[in-house]
Amino acid sequence: MMQYHHLQRNKVLLLFILFSALPSITSAYANNNNNNEAKPKPLMRAWMCSGKTQRDMVDKLAQAGIVKSAINKEALLRVDRKNYVLQTQRGDSAHQDSPLPIGYGQTISAPHMHAQVLEDLLPPLLKASKDTPDKLLKILDVGCGSGYLTAVFGRMVESKENRRKSTPLNEGKVFGIDVVPELVHMSKTNVMKEDGDLLDSGTVEFMLRDGWKGYPENAPYNAIHVGAAAATFPTQLMMQLAPGGVMVVPVGPDGGIQYLYRVERVGDGGAVVGVDESKGFQEDDYELYRVLGVRYVPLVQKD
Prior knowledge:
Layout: E1 3-6, H1 54-63, H2 70-78, E2 100-103, E3 106-108, H3 111-131, E4 137-142, H4 148-157, E5 172-178, H5 181-194, H6 196-200, E6 204-208, E7 221-226, H7 235-238, E8 241-251, E9 258-265, E10 286-294
Parallel strand pairs: 1-10, 4-5, 4-7, 5-6, 7-8
Antiparallel strand pairs: 2-3, 8-9, 9-10
């Protein structure tokens, strides 16, 4: 049975839920059996980390305890958000701690949300680097939008000789996908402004793909980030996780209640895309942790 965890306080396991509508997994919003346990709360001091520069913004995220890891802080400092917003937003709003429209009905997420995602996805990357030190890490960024977080991931796993500070992370590859052709083009254009070496080295690639289907050609992935809200849990993406891998995905209806979930792959009894796809989806392979309430634009499904 797929395990559902309400992530609060000491990350205590509160309950298990039977999902009866596989493979879509239509319900993951169970009543809490512990009346003393609060529902997921917004990040403390979120929306209060705006800065005048990239460093100012990142420093405030660190001071607020949202950015905790030196690895993530360094990667965020290397990629300036001003290069990934619209031209009209490149003044003071570029480093505001709020989402901004990037066109085509999409947004670039608030910096505190990007920081939360990085903190959730760093542990599996560190573990994979320790367990298989000679193997490339692979990260999938679904709904890459303007390319910002894809570039940050790229700085985390770029060639070790290009890193300004030594880190224990393996080198790797990051694949940014989007269903909107103009956003794929925008991502490439934005990265070329100051982070073009990531494209030149092959560390980062952008391509046109349906986010619900992922990018099975390069699966399995150690980490998957989904930058738009899926109406149900995207099982095709879940099967593209490597054992030990983690996906961070907002789930919930457009305009309704949404939560950010951390999906951990703890088994390989079912299909592992890119390794063995003969078994199909197995819910026992995954544990779900509800992290916090969110509001995202919907994950577009290609007709």
